[in-house]
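seq:
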Amino acid sequence: MSSARKLELVAARCALCGSGESEVCARGVDFEYDTSDDVFQMVSCLGCGHQYLNPRPASSQLDDIYPSNYYSFTGTSNRLVARLQRVWESGKVRLYRELVGDGERRLLDVGCGNGRLLSLLRDFGDERWELAGLEFDEGAVKQCRDIGFDVVSERVEDFAERDDQRGCYDAVIMLQLIEHVEDPALLCERVYTLLRPGGVFIIETPNLGGLDYRLFKGRWWGHYHFPRHWNLFSTDALVRMLETRGFEITRCEYLISTSSWIISHHNYAKDRDWPRFVQRFFNYQNPILLGLALVMDTLRTKLGLETSNQRVVGRKPAAAWEQNRPPPTEAAIPD
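struct:
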């Protein structure tokens, strides 16, 4: 490791059922950013099977585990990859138009990073959409504001407590974020309050499945992302969490996950102390490897097989239902 420091770690419980009983299912280090010398462990809840990081970094350590060169703050440096990525991801906006509808709509991108998705929504979405974002990194917030977006540096859990934000959004989009948070069940409840009746919650997050998961689980799987991924979901667990918090599930599908394939190989090469040039070759922006991973996961999705990435969409039902909504379960309330 390039760093010689230890992080402050805190004990965690299962965010889905509240159980403190678990068994270790994976151990690893920060293969990608070398933020500490700690060895981290992912555990499986003995109550419900949910996987989570335990112990995990204290909230005071976020600036340490998300360095300034973190990928979502810096964007893609390879111009060819950036162009192809933009074309590929513009297809997401077509789906969002189908889910949200054209016209005067309010969309909130939670964990918007440097504004890449917001830019796609502005360029390929309806010009009448009102776009906003949340992001905790001040440098990324500045980048978003510099290109004209209304972005706030605040946690969604706190943002949703504002009276002027409740029931205001037609869509809340959360791409590769819910796995990073301390209490995803509470986060879902807060998103529910932000949405208007009929509004949609669009989630993309790693899936505990797929060929790369089976090959690299236990230590090297790219979506462990030690120590930044605090909760990892199967599709069933994610759906169950959303339904328990009042959402109607309208869409579940597996997505291509090129980064997981490449980073898993990088982690293996680094852990085995292979030559540096080999480790550098397994870069998530390497266009050759991106093409190979794209073919692999495209074939799997066409065959109806799982991949290690998923999209689940939940819709907030009619307002009349909300008035009779049951309170959160005890398990969702942290000790």
